[in-house]
């Protein structure tokens, strides 16, 4: 799905989040699968970046990215980092998409249930509203 999404966008670029130099069992397989998929999409410019430098570049050069594909672990980290760069994760929606549409996709606020502010009358519902709009 990530390559199809990149193909539908004007920049036609994709970045794969990896850490094959540190997770020697699982990440080389991830890299191989991404490379194999890339062969089916020759018009897509793609690269792979280690998650640590990718996080730094998200902060310092966010404009360089369009579509990023990541494992659940790295995707979860990046999905918190992106909104945090705007100053808060409190207003960010999130989507876990099922591109085949055989099961429903999941849309939710990034911030979770925020039990630490329960009863203080300070909750901002915008992330929930935006998740519903997605």
TrEMBL record:
The lineage of its organism: Bacteria, Pseudomonadati, Pseudomonadota, Gammaproteobacteria, Enterobacterales. It comes from the Bacteria. It is an enzyme of class 1 (oxidoreductase). Coiled coil: none annotated. One of its GO terms (molecular function) is magnesium ion binding. Residues 1-134 form the Isopropylmalate dehydrogenase-like domain. Signal peptide: none annotated. SMART domains: Iso_dh (SM01329). Keywords: Manganese, Metal-binding, NAD, Oxidoreductase. PROSITE patterns: IDH_IMDH. Its EC number is 1.1.1.83, 1.1.1.85, 1.1.1.93. InterPro entries: ICDH/IPMDH, IsoCit/isopropylmalate_DH_CS, IsoPropMal-DH-like_dom. Its cofactor is Mn(2+); Mg(2+). The keyword Oxidoreductase applies. The keyword NAD applies. This is Multifunctional D-malate/3-isopropylmalate/tartarate dehydrogenase.
